[in-house]
Amino acid sequence: MNLDFDIKNNILIVSVNGEIDHHTSEEIRGEIEDKFYRMNAKNLIFDFSKTSFMDSSGIGMIIGRYKYVKNFGGKVCVARVNEKFDRIFKMSGLYKIINGYETIDEAIDGILGVVK
């Protein structure tokens, strides 16, 4: 598992490369919180285009980051979600609290409230 970070408009973009499971979710949580704080981010986008596997601890990690970011008045969303993860997110109810987008640019616009 490897994480790539980018920041645009106070939005931390996290690309998860590899697997999210009970072995990696705690490490991911810590790295995201550290970068979120150090980069002075307000919002968070998860990019799942390079994520190969996710178990229930991944859902828990996403919900935990949602609560963390919400405490700072920010928003969280997911982008570039494959069909399998999309189905899991729908079944878990994740989309009731977090929006999903096709692209990173759409996610940024969604967080910023840009209407096109």
UniProtKB/TrEMBL annotation:
Keywords: Phosphoprotein, Sporulation
PROSITE patterns attached to this UniProt entry: STAS
Domain STAS: 1-111
A single MF term (Gene Ontology): antisigma factor binding
Highest rank taxon of the organism: Bacteria
Biological processes, Gene Ontology terms: sporulation resulting in formation of a cellular spore
Matches recorded under Pfam families: STAS
InterPro entries given in the database record: Anti-sigma_ant, Anti-sigma_F_ant, STAS_dom, STAS_dom_sf
Chloroplast recorded as keyword: no
Family stated for the protein in its record: Belongs to the anti-sigma-factor antagonist family.
Function: In the phosphorylated form it could act as an anti-anti-sigma factor that counteracts SpoIIAB and thus releases sigma f from inhibition.
NCBIfam families per UniProt: ant_ant_sig, spore_II_AA
Name assigned to this protein: Anti-sigma F factor antagonist
Species of the source: Candidatus Fimicola merdigallinarum
Gene: spoIIAA
